[in-house]
Design goal:
The complex is a heterodimer of chains A (245) and B (525). Chain A has helices spanning 2-17, 75-82, 222-227, and strands at residues 60-72, 86-97, 103-122, 125-149, 156-173, 182-200, 203-213, 234-244. In chain A, a hairpin with a 6-residue loop joins strand 4 (125-149) and strand 5 (156-173). Chain A has three helices and eight strands, in the order H-E-H-E-E-E-E-E-E-H-E. An eight-stranded antiparallel β-barrel of chain A has the order 1-2-3-4-5-6-7-8. Residues 10-33 of chain A have low confidence and may be disordered. Chain A is mainly β and 245 residues long. The longest helix of chain A has 16 residues, at 2-17. Chain B is an alpha/beta fold and 525 residues long. Chain B contains 15 helices and 18 strands. A seven-stranded parallel β-sheet of chain B has the order 9-10-6-13-14-15-16, with helices on both faces. Chain B has a six-stranded antiparallel β-sheet with strand order 2-3-1-4-12-11. In chain B, a hairpin with a 2-residue loop joins strand 2 and strand 3. The longest helix of chain B is centred in the last third of the chain and has 18 residues, at 461-478. The two termini of chain B are 41 Å apart. The chains are: A mainly beta (245), B alpha/beta (525). Chains A and B meet through helix 2, strand 3, strand 4, strand 5 and helix 3 of A and helix 8, helix 14 and helix 15 of B.
């Protein structure tokens, strides 16, 4: 829940920061004052160019590569097996932009793998047993959200949104028997927010924070049951590089 | 390929010991008595002169007391009491406490073992009286009789039915197929993970010993009409070669090499460590460990020799092996001091002993995991058996109950109690635990020979206990530096709950699961 609250705070903050600023009415300070003689008109200055409201950009498509770093919610479980609860992954994605007033949709695929060892848990302490364990997570996300420009030219953008996660989970161990390995698929949810910047022509880069929730994927056995951890999600920091038109 | 060889062994064995089916004969050389004396250097013979008798661990008077205890079926050694004085007691204060006894012994008469003394007072055979009188003295922390532990296998020395033995795929030992206990525990898959532990792990078998020499010794012997000195040949069990012995020690019989004249110790040691996958005999659980034979119990032949060396004619009682609490305590402490990481105690008695409890405490603190038999007295009013009762006091010592072949029901003899912690196969209803051990010569043998070994079945918590000791050795070899408490926690956590849900008095936390204990936990499974 703490992670969820933090994620919501991040997203709300980002969303608020991307709202257009409206002009506030200002009271005329001269209304209650005596009529003063008008000062002489200042010398004529060149008029600035009028601000042209940015029109809705045209819809476009893009593709991107990504690097993920995920801090797993099941921290104790992953710390026990991998001596870290931070998993790194790579992936790619594609999407449509500005589908309707900043609306975008995307599909991403990321792949994470990590090597560790099976353990014995004694008084919440993990004792590695020198039996190799491999974990492979393939995560497909179908998501969407709103994207707003942060500058006049639309070079800087902020976005936020959510999506559905489909996680393919594969855990294999040395010396495993037929029932010892695990190959399952789980469904979860994600919320994300980030910024991107056009680097050069069609090329852009972006950074994103994501909160993933994959409930009840863990906890039925193994270390995760010992620690009572059930969620396969976590916080993700993501960087992306892509092209869009 | 295996079957003809197997049959040949059987034929050979049958020809040697008649109807007893043996699977193997030792190929060890047997030296002459004279050569033995030259090689042993530890007093290779016990001629019947008083000086040579000192080779025996006990003084003649104390040896006689022990024999008397056995003959009269006493629970303690007459006149022997274990005394621990409070810290800081001077010799004068100790002497003051001893003057409470009728015989007023001197402190110089005390036989010290670490910080505990053994007092022998021949004027008061009832050791309970001695202990009561000493416990009343303010200088004494505790005093207790030197109780006798008896090893009471429910059934012993049942030869393997040759028809049961078929070549097995894994391991390739011909008697493996009769070792239902190992296959029921899924040991082949456990061995895939950890093939028999390693020689870095020392397992002490505190028992009737495991013979450590191929040698003959001259011992006095009652041949039915007179006492004469004869040559008795001994051999190392082919399943436990000398290269896998270390720091053996005899606390019960003599100061010489450890000799198992009973077979109980060798059977137990074989369950733990018998050579495996050598296409001969049977398999053991942790077949690469080093065994530390610590002899604390004497069998029929030990006592027969002791009697004869004391010029007592006749034969010893047909009794089960026995040991004194003091010897057991010393053996446990010795094993821990000498680096044993696992200690097997397939013995027990109905008497509480602070001395024994302190020895277990010492050993666990020194880093030794201890497996202790629950006892075979369920059908004898199910008394609490010690030192099994003490296992609950120490994280790192486990009391072991026995199950039969079904693995789901308690063996009929297996003692129960709230202190029961774990269960392992011990055999029941004719389903024996088969291992290589000594083919004990018949008690009327004119020339006893201790060089014959075979695969024999026994049942009892004595047989269940080495399963846990072997598993502990596997865990320790897989995770060097693990503490005894962590070993116990792993064995408990991976046990299969049988009987009443949760921990119960029959099976403790359940039946050991060696593969699960070695395989550990992944993320989801």
């Amino acid at each position: 829940m703490r992670h969820l609250a933090i994620a919501l705070t991040v997203l709300v903050t980002m969303a608020v920061s991307t709202l257009p600023v409206r002009a506030q009415p200002v009271a005329d300070p001269s209304a209650d004052q005596q009529v003063q003689p008008k000062p002489p008109p200042p010398p004529a200055k060149p008029q600035p160019k009028p601000v042209v409201p940015r029109r809705n950009p045209k819809p476009g498509v893009g593709a991107f590569g990504l690097f993920d770093s995920e801090w797993m919610t099941a921290k104790d479980t992953f710390d026990a097996v991998f001596e870290t609860s931070q998993l790194r992954g790579v992936g790619f994605g594609a999407g449509g932009f500005n589908l309707f007033r900043g609306l975008f949709a995307r599909v991403t695929f990321s792949k994470t793998s990590e090597s560790g060892t099976r353990v014995a848990i004694v008084n919440e302490e993990a004792l590695p047993l020198n039996i190799a364990l491999e974990l492979k997570l393939n995560t497909t996300e179908i998501g969407g959200g709103w994207r707003v420009p942060l500058d006049r030219l639309g070079r800087y953008n902020a976005y936020g949104g959510g999506g559905l996660l489909f996680v393919s989970y594969r855990e294999t161990s040395q010396f495993a028997g037929p029932d010892d390995d695990s190959r399952e698929s789980f469904t979860g949810y994600s919320m994300f927010g980030g910024v991107d910047v056009t680097v050069w022509k069609l090329i852009y880069a972006g950074a994103e924070l994501q909160y993933r929730l994959v409930p009840d994927a863990l906890g039925e056995g193994g270390v995760s049951r010992e620690f009572g951890e059930t969620d396969l999600g976590g916080f993700v920091a993501r960087v992306m590089f892509g092209v869009r038109k | 390929m295996l079957l003809p060889r197997f049959s040949a062994w059987v034929r050979t064995a049958l020809s040697v010991i008649g109807a007893v089916a043996l699977l193997a004969l030792p190929d060890s050389p047997r030296t002459t008595a004279a050569a033995a004396q030259r090689q042993a250097g530890l007093g290779a013979a016990v001629p019947r002169d008083p000086q040579a008798r000192s080779v025996l661990r006990r003084s003649p008077a104390r040896a006689r007391a022990l024999i008397e205890a056995r003959q009269r079926r006493l629970d303690y050694v007459p006149g022997e009491v274990i005394v621990k004085f409070r810290d800081g007691m001077t010799s004068v204060r100790r002497q003051r406490a001893l003057t409470a006894l009728r015989s007023r012994p001197s402190v110089s008469d005390l036989e010290w073992h670490r910080n505990v003394a053994l007092l022998y007072d021949p004027t008061e055979p009832d050791a309970r009286v001695l202990a009561r009188q000493l416990n009343a003295q303010p200088e004494v922390e505790y005093a207790e009789p030197n109780y006798l532990v008896r090893i009471r296998p429910v059934s012993n020395a049942v030869p393997l039915d040759v028809n049961e033995a078929h070549p097995a795929a894994t391991p390739n030992d011909p008697a493996y197929s009769a070792q239902w206990n190992l296959s029921a525990l899924d040991m082949p898959r456990a061995w895939d993970i950890n093939p028999g532990a390693s020689s870095d792990v020392i397992v002490a078998v505190v028992d009737t010993g495991v013979t450590t020499v191929n040698q003959s010794f001259n011992f006095p012997y009652w041949d039915g009409s007179s006492i004469r000195t004869i040559s008795m040949p001994f051999a190392i069990s082919p399943g436990l070669p000398a290269s896998r012995h270390t720091r053996s020690r005899d606390f019960a019989f003599w100061d010489g090499a450890v000799l198992d004249v009973d077979g109980h110790g060798t059977h137990v040691a074989s369950t733990i460590a018998e050579a495996t996958n050598d296409m001969s005999r049977a398999a053991g659980i942790a077949y690469n460990v080093v065994v530390m034979p610590v002899k604390v119990c004497t069998g029929f032949w030990d006592e027969q020799i002791i009697r004869s060396s004391l010029n007592i004619p006749g034969r010893a009682d047909e009794d089960d092996p026995g040991c004194t609490f003091m010897d057991v305590a010393q053996g446990v402490e010795y094993a821990a001091e000498q680096g044993a990481k696992v200690i097997n105690l397939s013995l027990g008695a109905e008497f509480a002993s602070t001395r024994l409890r302190d020895a277990l405490d010492f050993a666990v603190r020194r880093g030794a995991f201890i497996a202790i038999a629950m006892g075979n007295l369920f059908e004898d009013l199910n008394p609490t058996v010690y030192p099994a009762k003490y296992a609950e006091l120490f994280q790192g010592a486990m009391s072991v109950a026995a199950v039969g072949r079904s693995l789901a029901t308690r063996a009929s003899y297996s003692s129960t109690g709230s202190h029961c912690e774990i269960a392992a196969p011990g055999g029941d209803l004719g389903d024996f635990i088969f291992q290589t051990t000594l083919a004990e010569p018949g008690h009327n043998s004119v020339s006893p020979n201790f060089t014959l070994f075979g695969v024999f079945g026994s049942q009892g918590t004595s047989m269940a206990t080495p399963h846990v000791a072997g598993l502990a050795a596997l865990i320790i070899s897989q995770r060097p530096g693990i503490t005894p408490a962590q070993v116990e926690a792993i064995i408990r956590a991976t046990a299969k709950d049988i009987g009443a849900p949760g921990k119960d008095n029959d099976f403790g936390y359940g039946l050991i699961q060696p593969r699960a204990a070695l395989f550990g936990l992944g993320i989801r499974k």
